[in-house]
Amino acid sequence: MMYWNGMNGWGYALMMVGNVLFWAAVVVGIVLLVRYVGRSSPSPMEPRLPSAEELLAQRYARGEIDSEEYRARLDMLRGSRADA
Prior knowledge:
Elements: H1 9-40, H2 52-62, H3 67-83
């Protein structure tokens, strides 16, 4: 076993504090990196919810509503968006 000459209690304490600070910095760096990468790109597994106009267009395409009702609801959606 190798002994360090001149290493007293303060030397061991400073070495231990330095080691803890180093590993804390590594962990914080990894956490920040993961949060940055996760925020910058949307998850491909997360489905995107369709907008109100897309839902209305799908209902019109399926024949659930006629063209008159589609136009009236579309105008209402666009009008309420302009008001907000």
